[in-house]
Amino acid sequence: MSHRIVCIGECMVEMAPQATAGDYRMGFAGDTMNTAWYLRQLMSADDTVNYLTAVGVDATSDAMLRFLADAGIGTDHVARRADQTVGLYLIQLTDGERSFAYWRGQSAARTLAQDEDALDAALNGAQMAYLSGITLAILSAPDRTRLLNRLAAFRAKGGQVVFDPNLRPRLWDTIDDMTHAVMQAAAVSDVVLPSHEDEAEFFGDTDPAATAQRYANAGASEVVVKNGDGPMLTLCDGQTTVAHPKAVPHVVDTTAAGDSFNAGYLAYRLHGGSVSDAMAQAASLAARVIQNRGALMTVSDADELFPDQVTRA
Ligand code: ADP
Question: Potential cystine with 218: which of 186, 190, 208, 271 (Cβ 3.0-4.6 Å)?
């Protein structure tokens, strides 16, 4: 059986500093798009990975869509808005430390959930829908409700909803708005993939088990708690599995650690892998990504991530 996955969120222009001061390289990135990028590489050729967002009609928006298409990510459900364009962020390097400036207040992606029929059309026939707390943060409150309602309907028809809370307080008016929306999304999700450090800060979880239990209580049947270089934990249908990521000798750039981990985990599970094997595969992909500069890397030997003993659906 081939799979169809729809990733929902915002892809932005990324301006990354180069060796010569003042020179920047233009690229594209964004949490849900990073996950789509890795899913596309890990899934089989007859599987489909679509991106659901909104962009402008300008040359930069065209370049973004070309980039997605070149990566093999489906763009049929990307809305075009004549009066808007895409968001942008710039990475500043100061004494080797990275900081980020964002221009995304008016980005077209903020309108991605304006149209109920368009959401249903994108989800129709898909097996899995993937979104994050950043997806929720950029939407107006009515659009957020519309998106969660359509995801609930998708789930009621047998679709699987996957959610990474990706807590970013700067994108929300208040911490309460953020935590409330995140738990609303968890309530329509089957799989939740939080990062313990953030969850501890904003929900007061004492350990990864507490994070997992809170999302399980909200209704998720599978919770995978990432934990940097510490022990990660999965709570799946009441069964707890703990795994320790292998040490990485030299961490170059942790951007997209969680996004790539999610893709590795989901791809492996979709191909029938066990929870503990999926954690191992996800951690090994994330370990490779953090030894590489930037969010996106080519996983040329993706087949290694799927050892022979795993049954492909
Ligand atoms: P996020 O990027 O969402 O904050 P984490 O920092 O928890 O997510 O990292 C996601 C995964 O990446 C971890 O579960 C682990 O597998 C891997 N990882 C992150 N940092 C390290 C590290 N320093 N050493 C080894 N693995 C790491």
Answer: 186
For the Cβ of 240 lying below 6 angstroms from any atom of ligand 1, the answer is no
Cα gap 263→269, rounded to integer Å: 10
* Residue 257: exposure state from Cβ atoms within 10 A (0-12, 13-18, ≥19): buried
User: Please, what's the b/e burial string for 6-17 (b: 16 or more CB within 10 A of its CB; e: otherwise)?
Assistant: bbbbbbbbbbbe
Can you tell me the distance from the alpha carbon of 144 to that of 203, in angstroms, rounded to the nearest whole number? 21
Amino acid sitting at position 16:
A
Largest CA distance in the chain: 53
Quick: pLDDT tens for 219-257.
999 999 999 999 999 999 999 999 998 888 888 888 899
Contact (Cβ atoms closer than 8 angstroms) between residue 227 and residue 208: yes
Q: Is 287 in the pocket of ligand 1 (CB under 6 A)?
A: yes
Q: Which residues pair with 123 in a beta bridge?
A: none
Q: How far apart are CA 103 and CA 10, in angstroms?
A: 12
Q: Counting atoms of ligand 1 from 1, which one is nearest the CA of 198?
A: 4
What pLDDT does residue 313 have? 32
Q: How far apart are the first and last CA of the chain?
A: 6
The answer, as to whether pTM is greater than 0.85, is yes
Among the listed residues 213, 293, 280, the one whose alpha carbon sits nearest the alpha carbon of residue 253: 293
